[in-house]
Specification:
Blueprint (H helix, E strand, L loop, with lengths): L1 H34 L25 H4 L10 H4 L23 E3 L5 E3 L2 H8 L8 H14 L9 E6 L2 H12 L5 E6 L3 H7 L5 E8 L2 E2 L1 H11 L10 E4 L13 H13 L3 E5 L10 H4 L5 E3 L4 H12 L3 E5 L31 E6 L11 E6 H14 L5 H14 L11 H4 L2 E3 L3 E5 L2
Parallel strand pairs: 4-5, 4-7, 7-8, 8-11
Antiparallel strand pairs: 1-2, 3-12, 5-6, 9-13, 10-14, 11-12
Helix pairs in contact: 4-13, 6-7, 6-12, 8-9
Length: 434
């Protein structure tokens, strides 16, 4: 019996060593691939090679002290078929008190999780997300934004709603006393995360077409003599259906803002939760059209709060003839504008997306996309804070895409089953009265 146990232990040890060697080889191959620029990638450097930004130049002292969790680092090994781990505290899936799980959709279709999906959803999983889900999200970002960087230089990490990832990005980038550039007005939820950090919030004016590039340029010129962390290095912007102002940045303004960010070495936090709800052509129509779902009635309260905080702002109506329409699936268009991520040749954009507005806010599902080194530092915060986003929420999304056909086309479309609860913000916007 003892000899059998020893033989089994020796065999298990060899499996772990083999797995570690395989992981090391894959990591080396990935590093080599990341170091080799793709033919289609833009070349910001004089030598023509993509040069990723050094995340250490931007991270806070707190985030610099964060180290990868030893237990979390073992999670990739657990994806190897037949691997048995005694180190991660993983419960035996056979003991989970659930035997099946299904969801009835509004259109009458039923989505049922397979046994493997159910077990996977109930078990601990990698911090960046379930591998299959992360792969789907990466494909989605490639279709929608096509980041102009080498394939190995950008990553996607699943978050518990986009606000979760944004909060962790502040942990990475915002130190007490830092000057952070924001729109005036901006989202009250982000202010709630920034103010306890005691950052100096520098407001940049917006109009009906979003942040005004000349105002940003002027502020950065004023701050150009500052040294160290006193110089602004973070720009937080909501480019689509800005909450609470209701404006949407045009493609030209995004291009100008990105060029300013490159000149002054800014990291752009692109918070875009309404991207998939907006149907517009700002250049052709002359005005942005904003579609918001009915769950966002809290926006009205936010507007009142901002009017209270910013007495120089008033509500103004576009007029009913300017109000956008939300069409059926066949009429859905992806936003005509480019994203900051789509023009990020230097790896200085962190993009935050949310599925709260198109699937369910209660599932708490979002993602952050950006340079791999920055995403890894955000994952370190997750490893210490919440380990990973709910596996059930992730598998629920995978199953919905598999059985209902959602989130699988190129470009992404909001299906009729998901647009039934969408209503249109009736043409109101928040503007300066001077």
């Amino acid at each position: 019996m003892l000899a059998s146990l020893r033989a089994h232990a020796t065999h298990s040890h060899s499996i772990v060593r083999s797995a570690a060697a395989n992981m090391s080889t894959k990591a080396n191959n990935a590093a080599a691939a990341a170091a080799t620029p793709s033919a289609s990638a833009s070349a910001p450097s004089a030598a023509g090679a993509y040069q990723p930004l050094d995340v250490a130049r931007y991270m806070t002292a707190l985030n610099a002290r964060r180290q990868p969790s030893a237990i979390r680092s073992l999670m990739p090994l657990l994806q190897i078929p037949g691997m048995i781990s005694l180190g991660g505290g993983l419960p035996n899936p056979a003991l989970f008190p659930f035997r099946s799980l299904s969801f009835g959709l509004a259109g009458g279709k039923e989505v049922r999780l397979s046994d493997a999906e159910l077990n996977e959803s109930l078990q601990y999983s990698p911090t960046p997300g379930l591998p299959k889900f992360v792969a789907q999200l990466r494909d989605l970002q490639q279709r929608e934004h096509a980041p102009p960087q080498p394939a190995g230089s950008w990553s996607v990490s699943v978050s518990t709603g986009s606000s979760d990832a944004l909060f962790k990005a502040f942990d990475l980038l915002v130190e007490e006393g830092d000057n952070v550039l924001i729109e005036a007005p901006t989202y009250s939820g982000s202010l709630a995360a920034l103010k306890p950090l005691k950052a100096n919030l520098i407001e940049i004016a917006v109009d009906e077409f979003g942040m005004i590039p000349s105002k940003l340029e002027g502020m950065m010129h004023t701050c150009s003599s500052m040294q160290g962390r006193a110089k602004p290095r973070v720009l937080y912007v909501i480019p689509t259906g800005q909450n609470p102002a209701g404006c949407t940045l045009t493609a030209q303004r995004k291009k100008e803002i990105y060029e300013i960010a490159c000149r002054y070495d800014l990291i752009i936090l692109e918070d875009d939760p309404y991207y998939f709800l907006v149907r517009f052509n700002a250049e052709a129509a002359g005005r942005p059209a904003v579609a918001l779902d009915s769950v966002l009635l809290h926006v009205l309260l936010t507007l009142l709060i901002c009017i209270r905080l910013f007495p120089g702002f008033v509500l103004q109506s576009y007029g009913p003839e300017k109000a956008p329409a939300v069409g059926a699936d066949a009429n859905w268009q992806r936003p005509a504008n480019s994203s900051f991520l789509s023009m990020d040749t230097e790896g200085r954009v962190l993009r935050f997306d949310s599925f709260s507005k198109i699937l369910s806010s209660g599932l708490r599902l979002g993602m952050v996309t950006g340079p791999t080194a920055f995403i890894q530092r955000i994952d370190y915060v997750s490893q210490a804070a919440n380990l990973h986003t709910s596996g059930l929420s992730q598998v629920r999304f995978i199953a919905h895409g598999r059985d209902a056909g959602c989130f699988t086309d190129a470009p992404l479309r909001v299906r009729p089953s998901l647009t039934g609860h969408v209503c249109v913000c009736s043409g109101w916007r928040l503007v300066r009265c001077w």
